[in-house]
Design goal:
The chain has 710 residues and is mainly β. The strands form 6 sheets. The chain has a 42-stranded mixed beta sheet that branches.
Length: 710
């Protein structure tokens, strides 16, 4: 039953059934409009609005774009124009993505075959090398042609490449004519080997247990224009070897397409494709490229396609990878007979402090994960990670995963159409920084939860000028104590339920994860814009949020429930923000020790349906609410509804609500000169400076239906 404490003024006299009128019991308080809520009006003074607001008639309304913002832009409080967000400038080889968000690069529909390859920006396969280049090279010193007769062999002409390597001195240049050569190459001196082109010069190792090219010492070897087929390793280098592979086809290797190991060892691949490594007997490796123990690999204008288990693997504190203008596509799970626990299918797998720089690359259609950093340092710029699919068992499908104190910096990139998580970072010491990027279209894998960006177990995430759009489950989720998430100048749009939960959430912070948000927009969430929840016995971390827009949350398929901000046993400090509610409630608070402090914020209803609840704030017991200089207006239900909770309302205004205040389940409303920092239980203290304008009823009868905790 409603309990209203008697007052000396008429502020909280129960008024029912009366016409709307100006309720100015504190009109003589002397408070100017600039000291009240963002939409408050003082008829005796010129209308002055806070920063980010402008006069509209007798009220101050937030300055926002008049229509929904197009892709690559977002609303921001104080701007009538949409402001840029995400990856808005496409480099050569990339164009605006089909969704309009960020940039993408086209690929052939089917995997390329023979001596052709995928290339950034090309919708069709491109040749490996150029067969029209004049041959032999003018500086060639030795020549190999399998069709030579015995009488044509001499000190510079040979039937096999191995014979030429044995005879050639350091610095020799060996030209290889078209043909098939069943051998493995093991240079012992600095040498250059040039084949006519990869489609015409085939080095077949399918019957050998040897690498296609093996360089086991500190020499410099350059190889181009060959196809290395079916070898144990396509190419291998150790012990400070320096190897350049250009315009090469490396296909069907039985351990790894390329293997290198050791500090000072380096392989540079350019214009080449590593494809179809399978793992001998289905039990070992199958990697496209493997870089270990301090080796350095550069990959330029190349493709790593349809390899088994891992497209690229790198491990070691001094190991370096540089990937530029390259495609990593279609990495496959291991066969069912695989050992070492792996179905895998990871495009790029990094361990033990390896360091990786990625520029203008495309990771597409890999299985399990596109990029997995396990304690490594990765920087990705102007790149695309898309279409990662789950393992056969239905797990994972993650775009980028960071674990075990790994770090990831993602700049001006697109993460699209992945499973479970677009970006996932877990474990204390792991961190991700995402700027000027787009994370879109993450969908459920059926086994795990789903989020565009996910942080847990003490990890850190920072989002700057990033758009997280059209994901299932949550746009951004953070779990567990020690996890920290910082958001600035970013957008979370059109999040939908993932099938495991009835609600889509724009931002979801749970179990004592810490959240900081500044100048962000959560738009068109199906369910909840911002959700905070911490289970006992954990102590919630206070979420600090300023300059937040929560707009156009829509109801779920299971009912008409939609909440702008929902706090269930959480701590929230919300400042200089706008919550526009179309459905159930703008701000919902429940659970001990929920303490929510809201200042200089607009809570406004814009219902699509006259039958909705349309409350602006609902506070259940036990919870504590502090509203300072807030504007609460246009509710078809209650502006402020307290169901056993406590709170304070300092200055601000309640305007054009059907019911300004609703108190039930033991709550009392008390007018005071100076509200307490900590109000007594079941007591809502209203400062005498608070303005009530044109509400249908100032204080309700305590019988309005209220939404319950989720």
């Amino acid at each position: 039953m409603l309990r209203v404490v008697p007052l000396l003024v008429a502020l909280l006299v129960l008024v029912t059934g009366c016409p709307r009128e100006e309720e100015a019991s504190v009109a003589d308080s002397g408070v100017e409009a600039t000291d009240a809520g963002p939409g408050s009006v003082d008829a005796a003074a010129a209308l002055t609005c806070r920063s980010g607001y402008a006069p509209v008639g007798e009220r101050c309304d937030p300055v926002l774009p008049a229509a929904a913002c197009p892709p690559n832009s977002r609303p921001s409080l104080g701007s009538a124009d949409c402001v840029p967000v995400g990856w808005t400038s496409c480099p050569q080889g990339f164009a605006t993505a089909p969704s309009g968000w960020g940039c993408d690069s086209r690929l052939p529909t089917d995997l390329c075959a023979e001596a052709s390859m995928e290339a950034i920006g090309s919708p069709s396969c491109v040749p490996v090398g150029d067969c029209s280049t004049p041959f032999p090279p003018s500086d060639a010193t030795h020549y190999v042609d399998h069709s030579l007769g015995a009488d044509q062999v001499d000190s510079t002409h040979f039937q096999t490449i191995s014979a030429a390597l044995s005879a050639a001195p350091a610095g020799a240049h060996i030209a290889v004519y078209p043909g098939t050569y069943a051998e493995g190459l093991a240079p012992k001196r600095n040498v250059k080997i040039t084949g006519k082109c990869a489609s015409q010069v085939r080095v077949d190792g399918s019957q050998l247990h040897a690498p296609g090219v093996s360089v086991p010492s500190a020499i410099r070897v350059e190889v181009s224009g060959l196809a290395l087929l079916g070898h144990w390793y396509g190419a291998s280098a150790i012990a400070k070897a320096q190897v350049i592979l250009r315009d090469m086809l490396i296909e069907g290797a039985r351990e790894a397409g390329v293997f290198l190991q050791g500090v000072g060892t380096r392989i540079d691949l350019e214009g080449s494709v590593i494809r179809g490594t399978v793992g001998e007997d289905g039990k070992n490796f199958g990697y496209g490229l493997s870089v270990n123990a301090g080796g350095t690999l550069t990959l330029l204008r190349s493709a790593v396609v349809a390899n088994s288990r891992l497209g690229l693997y790198a491990a070691g504190a001094r190991t370096r990878l540089e990937l530029t203008d390259s495609v990593i596509r279609g990495t496959l799970p291991a066969p069912e007979a695989a050992v070492d626990g792996g179905e895998l299918g990871i495009g790029l797998h990094l361990l033990d402090k390896a360091q990786v720089e990625i520029q203008r690359c495309l990771f597409a259609d890999n299985r399990d994960m596109a990029i997995n950093s396990w304690g490594a340092t990765v920087r990705v710029a102007n790149s695309v990670v898309r279409g990662t699919r789950s393992r056969p068992g239905g797990e994972t499908g993650v775009g980028l995963s960071v674990l075990q104190a790994g770090t990831l910096e993602l700049v001006s990139s697109l993460v699209s159409d992945n499973r479970s998580f677009g970006i996932s970072v877990e474990a204390l010491g792991s961190s991700v920084k995402v700027s000027d990027s787009v994370v879109e279209g993450t969908t459920s894998a059926g086994q795990w939860g789903t989020a565009g960006v996910h942080a847990a177990d003490g990890a850190q995430v920072q989002l700057l000028r990033t758009a997280v759009v059209g994901n299932q489950g949550a746009a951004l989720s953070a779990f567990e104590a020690g996890t920290t998430v910082s958001v600035e100048a970013s957008l979370f749009r059109a999040t939908t339920p993932d099938g495991k939960d009835a609600f889509g959430r724009g931002i979801d912070a749970e179990d004592a994860a810490c959240l900081t948000v500044h100048d962000a927009a959560i738009v068109e969430s199906t369910g909840i814009g911002l959700f905070l929840q911490t289970a006992a016995p954990l102590t919630p971390c206070e979420a600090v949020v300023s300059g937040l827009l929560v707009l156009d949350s829509s109801p779920t398929d299971t009912g008409r429930r939609a909440r702008g901000v929902s706090v269930q046993r959480g701590l929230l400090r919300l400042e200089d923000s706008v919550l526009l509610s179309r459905w159930e409630v703008a701000l919902f608070v429940n659970g001990e020790p929920s303490i929510v402090r809201v200042s200089r914020t607009l809570l406004r209803a814009q219902p699509d349906d006259p039958g909705v609840l349309g409350h602006l704030l609902v506070a259940h017991a036990p919870s504590e609410i502090h509203l300072t200089d807030c504007d609460v207006r246009d509710s078809p239900g209650a502006g402020l509804a307290f169901a056993g909770g406590s709170g304070v309302v300092v200055r601000g205004s309640l305007t054009d609500n059907v019911v300004a205040l609703e108190a039930l389940r033991g709550s009392s409303l008390v007018e005071v000169d100076a509200p307490s920092e900590q109000p007594p239980p079941f007591t809502i203290q209203i400062s005498r400076e608070t303005r009530f304008n044109n509400n249908g009823t100032m204080v309700g009868l305590g019988n309005l239906p209220l939404p319950e905790p989720l």
